[in-house]
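Morning. Coffee machine broken again, so started the prediction first thing and wrote up yesterday's gels while waiting. Chain of 356 residues, entered below exactly as on the submission form.
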Amino acid sequence: MLLSRISSTSIKADTTSIAAGASVAAIAAYLLLRKARSGKTKADPNDERKRLVVVSGCDRGFGRVLVEKLSQNPRYMVLALTLKEESATMLNKLAPESLVAMKCDVTSDVDIARMEKKAATMVVDPNIVLHTIVNNAGILDPGDFVWFRDISSYKKTMDVNFFGCLRVTKALLPLMINTSMSLPEGARILNLSSIIGKLSWGNMSTYSASKYAVEAWSDSLRMELSTLNICVVKIRPSAIKTDMMREYFDRIDFNLENAPKDVKAMYDAEKVREWKNTNLAEHESRDMTGNQSAGIVVGTLAKFIETDIEKLPASKWVGAGANTVFRLISWLPESSKDKIFMRTPFYVPPIHPKQT
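Came back before lunch.
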């Protein structure tokens, strides 16, 4: 018995020592990394070059508001990427001296090549330097996995939300690396993730899978670029009042209606309708100027574009409940999260035919 207690104590002591050692090593590595990063920043703090900011998904929502805001700041030159030609035409009329917009479907290699050429042409000017990439383009197609007749929705969502980020970044990163060490505040890549990139519940698997991918890629990229004076930040908005969220509710109706007949039979249509109407009404009643509005996300992005990279976090939860309720839920065991998210207002689960 005594030997057993001693062994147990030894194991605990060893575990504590290992944990303490690992913590010290991690802190030391972090401090060395900060020193290496700051030591390689060579530019004059009075650098007056214009900072080029490239933003995808600027037809509406966060992207549209952000580029309009940045175009009013003489410090920045903005390259806005839109899905539609007419959106680019409208943006080009706003601030011709500081805002350039162009059609760029982030799933099109042809459009990406055109965008890369445009950005390269802009930074030929020695007074312009690539400072920020904001990967904002995204789509949302909700529904349970069994609602979809094939995996085309998953492919499309991943192509825009995840591979779109990769295409834009791959095209621009050489230009960024070329001058990143000359920026006293550092260069940065801001990737729009979501609270759904850290948590997932029913009818959100297409979107959630794409955002989990963005999270994982961002973590790797952040480490890979950290010694090049480039910071990578994940932005995790909660449910913000935007056109995309309104379309979410329309797509719920459409996707369930078009599900296989035997699948539709497993769902209580009245409950789904009640769930949708309740959540839609709550969404429409949100404050357009508070922490449920697009402005809070745009404000965060604008702040992170201005901030020295040494002060930027690896991730930022933004919006109503994001940094409190949802962040806390993300730390819970999976079983606890399942119990929370299997209830209204999050989800209406199916009922097996044999139980009806």
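Confidence is low (pLDDT under 50) at residues 1-32, 34-43. Going to sketch it on the whiteboard this afternoon.
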